[in-house]
Amino acid sequence: MRFLFVGDSMTIGRAGDWTWRHRMWEHLERVMPDGYEIVGPRDGLYVPEGEAGDPRGYADPGFPAAARRHLAGWGEGWLHMAPVIGETVAATRADVLLVSLGLIDLGFYTNSDQTEENVRAFVGAARAANPGIRAVLLPVIPNVRAAYDAAFAAECARFNELLAKAVADLGSPASPLLLASVPESYDLRTDTYDGTHPGPSGEHKLAAAFADAMHQAWGYGGRYRPL
Question: Are 53 and 15 in contact (CB under 8 A)?
């Protein structure tokens, strides 16, 4: 089974991060050691322009190169991924998409309705490449901007409602979609390092959201247990 991580800055991570992708790799190693592959056209971390850093500089140097693969980008959202997901699924033969997008769209590019349109375009393109594709979609999680910008918080809440409706509308037995649950205990003070991007505890909670959704709905692997 081939897994493809799709996301924005919270998924690609920055030089020196572990990333929730690493936490998911650890989980898959425990529950599906011989039955999975992580795929994707990219494998690096984000390094801000003008700063010293190694895009291969994961916090765990033992993170295998093959497990680092992804389709994630700093500052990229549904708007950017919808046009490229079809070709990526075709090239990687991905079976399951683990998608964490939306915050950057609402913050910089599109409103909730436009973002939902891009969700539907994304799903359509992925299915055109693989009619049996499965996907787990994570709603927009708590973030610092929503804590002080009421209009932005309202857009996040509305998009999450639209995302849930899209998952219900678009899901099918042949190509099932899951809506992951936002971790109830997610705390910006302890689970992020800047109010948005996950630190170690936040990474575990995001990985658990995906792992537990797949286990509960599809029987994949087991429940998430952090190492």
Answer: yes
Q: Do 130 and 95 touch, CB atoms closer than 8 A?
A: yes
pLDDT digits (tens, 9 = 90+) for 166-191: 999 999 999 999 999 998 899 999 99
In angstroms, the Cα distances linking 156 to 101, 149, 174 are 11, 11, 30
Q: What is the DSSP letter of 49?
A: T
**Cα separation of 14 and 90, whole Å?**
27
Phi-psi sector, 86: left (phi>0), alpha (psi -120 to 50), beta: alpha
Decide which of 3.30.200.20, 3.40.50.300, 3.40.50.1110, 1.20.1250.20 is the CATH code for 2-218.
Answer: 3.40.50.1110
Rounded distance, CA 99 to CA 81, Å? 10
